[in-house]
Design goal:
Pfam families: p450
Radius of gyration: 23 Å
Distance between the termini: 49 Å
Cofactor: heme
Order of helices and strands: HHHEEHHHHEHHHHHHHHEEEEHHEEEE
InterPro entries: Cyt_P450, Cyt_P450_CS, Cyt_P450_E_grp-I, Cyt_P450_sf
Mean pLDDT: 86
Family: Belongs to the cytochrome P450 family.
Number of helices: 17
Strand order of the largest sheet: 1-2-7-4
CATH superfamily: Cytochrome P450
Largest sheet: 4 strands, mixed
Organism: Paspalum notatum var. saurae
CATH class: Mainly Alpha
CATH architecture: Orthogonal Bundle
Low-confidence stretches: 1-28
Shape: globular
CATH topology: Cytochrome p450
């Protein structure tokens, strides 16, 4: 254990230990459900380091499955300083995603870094208000307007950063592409020093999301806090500038996300969202919009390098679409509807490598599931792999089979089995936006380039999101001029 982590653990030991002792002392009432089997482990540390090591070693799926094999579908443990119940299976997922007494609960580090007024943290009427505001920006008639802009950003990016190169490293390029797209559509930011500064800060924000939440020098958490503060100042400045543009008639509600959120009012005509709420949710939108889509597209590239049949089928699909377009004509909303096989490949990639390994909820009251008590204040943890890799749900779960999703849904599987976008009232609000980004990018990528992997070892680690070895360097061959 390195010295900075040891100091961090010592710094939080006393308050967290007192919290654990208080919650452990809570005994079920006679005749009621009992605590789940399992162990809370060592004070403060619990099973946190063990899980983080497994994620970085690409054995996290095995780690959670071993707990299920040992204790069953419901077990107790301690993660990131809080007593936790791990739940497994479709019924458990449904219980988690549709239970109003289990609101989202991010690790303390994520709360501090992302803010406490985000769609991830708020509950009840506040959550519905924020979600409704973001949904205004992501409704279908707005999304139709974004296809052409995304098309232009993808072609520019591939032309400038891929074309003419013999080798490229996919992950950082995909992260920059998705950042450029979302910065344009969220903030109206084109290529500029301000955009570059925000991109650099956002990369550092993610480093401390699942870190020990102690603000000490030289820790990932300290670096992330500082980066988050800088990013907030940038976004707050953009918000004030956009507000002034709206007042002068130089911007419209459909210009970008900030303009949309600033234009929303309640029944009295007052602003629907405060500036702090706009800034916090813009940070979350940046993180979610950049990382999840870039990871999906990176792992699609990774898989297609070794699956010529799937790649050939995708190329055929996109060449057919290209035949109906004029030279240089951008893709349209209707073109995306024709990319059914490509989206099936994307969904199968998400099944095998979900960007979000799992997440937390918090019990706001005593709950019971499958005869076990979940005490008020405890965390509930779910992991996507427990159903994504279940042979009883997905036949031959380790095989790559896009045909599982050929009906464009996971309808063949039990409800709450495919969790790449979550489920229930908090299902990913940007799911359709991610679909547009992915389909447009893959349309040009498979038509313009061939590639093969540079690394013989085809593995990845999670920290906390998946990243392939060395960022996935590939050898590139250009088929057509962008």
């Amino acid at each position: 254990m390195d010295s900075s982590l040891l100091l961090a653990l010592v710094a939080v030991a006393l308050p967290v230990l007192l919290h654990l002792l208080k919650t452990m002392a809570k005994k079920p009432r006679p005749g009621t459900a009992k605590l789940p089997p399992g162990s809370l482990g060592l004070p403060v540390i619990g099973q946190s380091l063990s899980l983080l090591r497994a994620m970085r070693a690409n054995t996290a799926e095995r780690w959670v499955q071993d707990r299920v094999d040992r204790y069953g579908a419901v077990s107790k443990l301690s993660l990131f300083g809080a007593p936790t119940v791990l739940l497994a299976g479709p019924a458990a997922n449904k219980f988690v995603f549709f239970n109003s007494a289990l609101p989202s609960q991010q690790p303390r580090s994520a709360q501090r870094i992302l803010g406490d007024k985000t769609i991830l943290e708020l509950m009840g009427a506040d959550h519905r208000r924020i979600r409704g505001a973001l949904a205004e920006f992501l409704k279908p008639d707005m999304l139709r307007l974004y296809v052409g802009k995304i098309d232009g950003e993808v072609r520019r990016h591939l032309g400038e950063r891929w074309a003419g190169r013999r080798t490229v490293t996919v992950m950082p390029l995909m992260k920059r592409l998705t950042f450029d797209i979302i910065a344009l559509l969220l903030f109206g930011l084109g290529r500029s020093p301000l955009q570059d500064a925000l991109a650099d800060d956002l990369a550092r924000v993610m480093d401390g999301i699942w870190a020990v939440p102690v603000n000490l020098p030289f820790t990932a958490f300290r670096r992330s806090l500082k980066a988050s503060a800088r990013a907030r100042r940038i976004i707050a400045g953009i918000t004030r500038e956009t507000k002034a543009k709206l007042e002068r008639g130089e911007a419209a509600r459909s210009s970008d996300l900030i303009a949309c959120l600033l234009s929303l009012t309640d029944d009295t005509g007052a602003p629907l969202l405060s500036e702090d709420e706009i800034v916090d949710n813009s940070i979350v939108s940046l993180v979610a919009g950049q990382d999840t889509s870039s990871i999906l597209m990176t792992f699609m590239v990774r898989h297609l390098a070794g699956d010529p049949d799937t790649l050939a089928a995708m190329v055929r699909e996109h060449e057919e679409i290209a035949k109906s377009k004029g030279d240089g004509e951008a893709l349209s909303w209707d073109d995306l509807a024709k990319m059914k096989f490509t989206w099936s490949v994307a969904l199968e990639t998400l099944r095998l490598v979900p960007p979000v390994f799992g997440s937390f909820r918090r019990a706001t009251q005593d709950l019971e599931f499958d005869g076990h008590l979940i005490p008020k204040g405890w965390q509930v943890f779910w992991a996507a792999s427990l159903t994504h890799r279940d042979a009883a749900i997905f036949h031959e779960p380790d095989e790559f089979k896009p045909s599982r999703f050929e009906n464009q849904s996971a309808a063949a599987a039990p409800p709450c089995s495919f969790l790449a976008f979550g489920a229930g009232p908090r299902i990913c609000i940007g799911m359709e936006f991610a679909r547009i980004e992915t389909l447009v990018t893959m349309h040009y990528l498979v038509r313009w380039f061939r590639w093969k992997l540079c690394c013989k070892e085809d593995t990845f680690a999670r920290d906390p999101m998946p990243s392939p070895l060395h960022g996935l360097p590939i050898e590139l061959e250009q088929k057509a001029l962008p």
